[in-house]
Amino acid sequence: MEAEITLTVDGTAHRLTVDTRTTVLDALRERLGITSPKKGCDHGQCGACTVLADGRRVNSCLMLAVAFDGARITTADGLVEDGEPHPVQRSFVEHDAFQCGYCTPGQVVSAVGALDEMREGWPSAATDEGGGMDEEIRERMSGNLCRCGAYANIVPAIAEVVQR
């Protein structure tokens, strides 16, 4: 069965006819050619496919596109404004917070979402334990895995954006 949907991706509206079993990730990559969200595990365990849907972090490999009809989707590419990288993107580069780069778009988008959650006062398990900023970042980013182990630079990159 197919359905007609509209996804606004990185500010551009796209009208699509999709199989009702199509995930947001597959709609982005296979139908729209938007490849910054990556298909890592395809089970919602690695976070390489993280996008913002109406401002909230989601694993796009788990979300059915028909459930997001009318949603505003932001990928790592959509974080760039007027040709300028988002502060998180800049900080990742400045801190060399990537190695192979496969997980980086998901890490960056998740960090942007996590910072918004922190700014809005959403608590986490680390907030309740009072473990400090690094622990807070690690807890909030725990759904995004890096097989290369770049965490030693990812956490300081995000912490620097918090401090700014």
Automatic annotation (TrEMBL):
Residues 3-79 form the 2Fe-2S ferredoxin-type domain. It comes from the Bacteria. This is (2Fe-2S)-binding protein. Keywords: Iron, Metal-binding, Oxidoreductase. It comes from Saccharopolyspora rosea. SUPFAM superfamilies: 2Fe-2S ferredoxin-like, CO dehydrogenase ISP C-domain like. CDD domains: fer2. InterPro entries: 2Fe-2S-bd, 2Fe-2S-bd_dom_sf, 2Fe-2S_ferredoxin-like_sf, 2Fe-2S_ferredoxin-type, 2Fe2S_fd_BS, Aldehyde_Oxdr_Iron-Sulfur, Beta-grasp_dom_sf. Signal peptide: none annotated.
